[in-house]
Amino acid sequence: MADEGTRVAFDREQYRKVQQLVTDVERTNDDALYGTDGYAISSDLRAQPAEARWEVAVQVGNDVSALAGQVRTFTDTFTDKTLPNFRDQLEKAEKLFEETDDLSVADAQA
User: Fold this and answer.
1) Whether pLDDT at 37 is above 80
2) How far is it between the farthest Cα atoms of the chain?
3) Which of 4, 69, 75, 87 sits between 20 and 30 A of 41, alpha carbons compared?
4) What does the pLDDT look like over 76-107, one tens digit per residue?
């Protein structure tokens, strides 16, 4: 909340930096799931050969595979749903900021 008599103004340049950061994260998130040598972070990723016989090696392989699958599921949801929704909300907020002379008196419900 602003102090009495202090006007809170919209800084478009700083806001665009936030929007660009969200766009960059969205774009590079998918890139991080795939290596240049062909591996991918998904439930197919293994730390041990699938034919491993030693119980500890089998468990490590299964755990890494499960973790990689969870990472992939989270990242896909984050990239495909969460970030686009957040970006849309940033665009809506930008319109409010442009239409409001003093952000300290803006009504979120309006």
Assistant:
1) no
2) 73
3) 87
4) 888 889 988 998 998 888 888 777 766 666 66
The three-class DSSP label of residue 33 is coil
Domain ranges, ordered by start, for the chain: 12-105
Tokens for 32?
């991080």
The amino acid present at 46, given as its one-letter code, is R
Separation of alpha carbons 8 and 29, rounded Å: 34
Cβ neighbours of 80 (radius 10 Å): 13
Count of alpha carbons within 13 angstroms of residue 41, beta-carbon side? 16
For 62, the token pair is: 């299964």
CA nearest to 12, candidates 108, 87, 98: 98
| pTM (whole model) above 0.90 | no
Return d(Cα 21, Cα 15) in angstroms, integer: 10
Residue 92 has which token pair?
């809506």
Rounded Cα distance, 44 and 68, in Å: 8
